[in-house]
Write a structure and sequence with these properties.
The chain is an alpha+beta fold. It has helices at 30-37, 84-90, 139-142, 183-186, 189-202, 218-229, and strands at 2-4, 40-50, 58-66, 72-81, 100-101, 105-113, 125-128, 166-170, 174-176, 211-214, 235-238. The protein has a domain at 16-186: Quinone Oxidoreductase, Chain A, domain 1 (Alpha-Beta Complex). 20% of the residues lie in helices and 26% in strands. The strands form 3 sheets. A 5-stranded antiparallel beta sheet has the order 8-4-6-7-9. Strands 1-10-11 form a 3-stranded parallel beta sheet, covered by helices on one side. A hairpin with a 7-residue loop joins strand 2 and strand 3. Helix 5 crosses helix 6. The longest helix is centred in the last third of the chain and has 14 residues, at 189-202. Bound molecules: zinc ion (2 copies). One zinc ion binds at residues 134-135, 137-138, 140-141, 149, 151.
Length: 248
């Protein structure tokens, strides 16, 4: 039997079991990068903004419309999921870098590309990997475990995210949606990818195992479906989370 727990998706692409999942650390170098992102024109757009540290401090505000720099892509957001991480940001239990536009599970259409972008073009249907900035030099980055980079700035918490009309992403964080995947479903690509990683790579589940998934939130539901798709017809969802229940 394998038991899988995920509390949110934004760190789930690669899980470091030694790092507390919820912490209120400040991002190391986010400020100047955030300012660099505010490379705006004169237009503004409505966005959901964590405008100051502390509990709450989230509001819909007019924010400058961004434009893509070198190697960046501008996406018109079609859908953006509300993640458990967003709730943690509301309660200030998850690191954030205000003022920052939140939202990191999105789909959308490319409306502009910056200089040097060649694998993405205007009109493409896409989703975004939320490791918005990583150092590219540390052991984790060099091994491809970018979600563990200590300098990581995440889309929608460290850098501006997708609860807005437009979002900016690095070209290498763009993934194309197949034609048969709707924008609505495409917004779940990133949490689904975390669940695939949890089931297929981190827990060593194989076909025929009996699988118990605790916590029937969106991540739990996706994880159970992935386990089933991996050949585990005996996938069970536990209707409570052991952290919150005497019933366990
Ligand atoms: Zn998420
Ligand atoms: Zn790094």
């Amino acid at each position: 039997m394998c038991v899988t727990q995920l509390t949110g998706c934004i760190d789930g692409g690669m899980i470091d079991p030694l790092t507390p999942r919820i912490s209120v650390q400040k991002f190391p170098k986010g400020r100047d990068i955030t300012q660099a992102r505010l490379r705006e024109g004169k237009e503004t757009m409505k966005a959901l903004v964590k405008y100051a540290s502390g509990v709450g401090n989230i509001d819909v505000r007019e924010m400058p419309e961004p434009s893509p720099g070198e190697g960046e892509v501008k996406v018109e957001v079609k859908y953006c999921g509300i993640c458990g991480t967003d709730i943690h940001i509301y309660h200030d239990h998850y690191k954030n870098n205000p003022p920052v536009i939140i939202g990191h599970e999105c789909s959308g259409q490319v409306v502009e590309v910056g200089p040097g972008v060649d694998s993405v073009k205007v009109g493409d249907r896409v989703t975004v990997i939320p490791a918005a900035y990583t150092c590219g030099r540390c052991r984790y980055c060099l091994e491809g475990h970018v979600f563990l980079c200590e300098e990581r700035l995440s889309f929608g918490s460290g850098l501006n995210g997708a609860f807005a009309k437009y979002a900016i992403a690095r070209e290498k964080n763009i993934r194309h949606l197949p034609d048969n995947v709707s924008y609505k479903a495409g917004a779940l690509s990133e949490p689904l990818a975390c669940c695939v990683k949890a089931v297929s790579f981190l827990t060593g589940v194989s076909a025929g195992d009996v699988v118990l998934v605790t916590g029937p939130g969106p991540i739990g539901l996706l994880t159970a479906q992935v386990a089933k798709a991996a050949g585990n017809q005996n996938s069970h969802l536990c209707p409570f989370h052991p952290c919150f229940s005497d019933q366990s």
